[in-house]
């Protein structure tokens, strides 16, 4: 019955297309074109309706053309052999100049070989498999996109939501298999692992599909990429909904082979896809497209009266534009004298070698490849033998329809809006640049992308004993045989697992033997996750660059770095001259200089003030100069400026002496410990022997630094380290222990008083856990560990296993009391120096001013005396020369100044009073 319906449909289509062709182009040159499609498929029905409308529209717009296309439509019946037979018939009996189709990629491979042999272009708008290469099939033209064009969009979407594993589900056909190599490569570039590939035969029954879905449910990965025909995909999603795989936590991404037909699928199928994401070819909206869509719906109902209404898809638009491209190329070539040359052969006509070759085929192909125009599907350009990568629309299937959540372009990556000007975006799993999505189960929370199935195996956690059992200690239960692990590393892991938002059952699996801490290196231990022996390994495992090649690491949970442990010694030699050590030589020198300077300033100030106590022989003045800075004697100092200088100096002296006393007390009573070695280069130069923990990568580091093998000794336990360090390098021990910082802190917690840590001398990433490459647990465990190490939990864990090792004063750099330097008291030196200098300058200015004032008075008195002598001469009263020569200066410094002032009326009373005061030695306040 179905075959009969196809035959009737084919006759009706041929009749309608033939009538349209004859009525519009009765006198034009005919160009025979073959069309091979599966007329019973949804794509075939949509394409045939678009092709008939394309012929009508093209020749209605180009009535003056001298050529017309004559279509010969054939039904492949969805069979590869049938499609090949139809192609042979068209080439042999109808001498077609080109063949449009076939629909499937598997059919296109053989038919394209026929086109190459006969020089007839084969144009397919549905064969999307990347295995159809134009380089090997020179007469094959893909009027659609290569499936590999959408893999970057898929990978970007997965990366945007932070998923790290994905399982492709594809049909076992040329179309299904062709995309997988390209998809896997691009996913790996985005650090997305493909742990499994689900292959569905095109003839699979519902039970077979259900069985495969149950198998997927037992795996951790919950992100699926579906690439198959719409018929097989419909069955897959209906069964997925039945088994509960369209619920919360699952992620489904559908390629464009299905989503390009989403509007034409049955509503029940669309409902079963609710929450899925789809890659959809974006078609720009236009008035022409809207008008054509209306006409197409009407014609489709006429062509398929018994079928339910369908909607125009991108395949219908590509078939429409393909007819326009072929019709334009036929008009340019002409094809009026087209011939098929038969090869000389005696074989039967059914032999492939008997196929003729088209004389105009190469030129016809050239014109088709030069077709460039804006069609209903957008930019239609076949210059690369296929349509170029354009814009993909990312959709979210909801209810019986879908909604847009974003776009993808090769230039801008993912974006919410198509015309958003931006460079390629770097996405995070927390904030993808897309509109909100309603996921399966009507959830708005972004799925994690994986789950630990309840029926699946437990997480295999690899453990091994450590030389430091505070980090991890492994024991084997003699009765049950179960492995038990304890320690800081174990507690951090267990606390992190508790924080995970889902249950993760796990079991500890022993590496080596519980007692042997040196059974295999840590590199071998970590490599077990790459061999799939363990899912994760925990313990005191250092995150190293070379280990990242075969394992992924969580964030570190300890401090990082490599340092040295060396013995300490008292840095202060308490000898006879220890009283000099509180001050540096510079401080001593500065204090002495300012001591002398202050004494000179005070002596000068008193001398300028005519203080008789500072006059006398030089030894006396030196004694006074030393006396002034040490003792404040108001009876000796008469000037106000001198007392200011002394107050500032005594403040300076008080601070310095107090600091000196405190520092000297500290040196005499507190032990000042310093490391015996401050730098690893000292060990290299002196040829000392150093130690390391047996099995640690530190050995290789020491060799890289230049230590010979004879200068490196391995040890196993902290007690071994203590014994070797206490003996020293010269007595069969070691001068220093080179170890990782977490171990050193643990060692110093027990041996705090005798050793100290120097460094770190080398940077390391700290301790972490190793997982297999691509393990989806990595991100969640790392986040949980950050929660543990960032709060009070890690403090309590460290106290439990390590005690209060941070109380050790020797952890980290040692700092003791040091000598006081000149820089420590720079401010005081500046203050006392400024006070002394300014005071002496003020005193000099006052002294100069008084001296100038005195000289002026003497000159005035001399002039007055001369005037009096002249008056006496005129009055003939001779005066004694010595009496007339008495001046104020002689009065001031003469021994009998009081009698002179009383007997000489020419001396001013003020001068006599000043001189009398000086003579009597009565004190006067002066600056």
What keywords describe this structure?
30 strands, 16% strand, disordered C terminus, elongated, 6-stranded mixed sheet, alpha/beta, Iontro_rcpt_C, 927 residues, Peripla_BP_I
Write a structural description.
The relative contact order is 0.07. The protein contains 30 helices and 30 strands. The protein has an eight-stranded mixed beta sheet, with helices on both faces. Strands 24, 25, 26, 27, 28 and 29 form a six-stranded mixed beta sheet that branches. Strands 2-1-3-4-5 form a five-stranded parallel beta sheet, sandwiched between helices. The protein has 927 residues and is an alpha/beta fold. The protein is elongated and about 150 Å long. Belongs to the glutamate-gated ion channel (TC 1.A.10.1) family. L-glutamate binds at residues 542, 547, 740. Residues 857-927 are annotated as: Disordered. InterPro entries: ANF_lig-bd_rcpt (IPR001828), GABAb_receptor_plant_PBP1 (IPR044440), Iono_Glu_rcpt_met (IPR001508), Ionotropic_Glu_rcpt (IPR015683), Iontro_rcpt_C (IPR001320), Iontropic_Glu_rcpt_pln (IPR017103), Peripla_BP_I (IPR028082).
In short:
The chain has 927 residues and is of the alpha/beta class.
Count of helix runs: 30
Strand-residue fraction?
Answer: 15-25%
Distance between the termini: 135 Å
Secondary structure class reads: alpha/beta
**Low-pLDDT residue intervals, each spanning 5 or more residues:** 422-430, 631-635, 812-816, 876-927
Shape by Cα distribution: elongated
The overall strand count is 30
Mean pLDDT: 81
As a percent range, the share of helical residues equals 40-55%
| Major sheet: arrangement of strands | 7-6-8-9-10-15-16-17
Main pleated-sheet profile: 8 strands, mixed
Q: How much is the radius of gyration in Å?
A: 52 Å
Keywords: Cell membrane, Disulfide bond, Glycoprotein, Ion channel, Ion transport, Ligand-gated ion channel, Membrane, Receptor, Signal, Transmembrane, Transmembrane helix, Transport
Main location: membrane
Disulfide bonds: 752-808
GO biological process, one term: monoatomic ion transmembrane transport
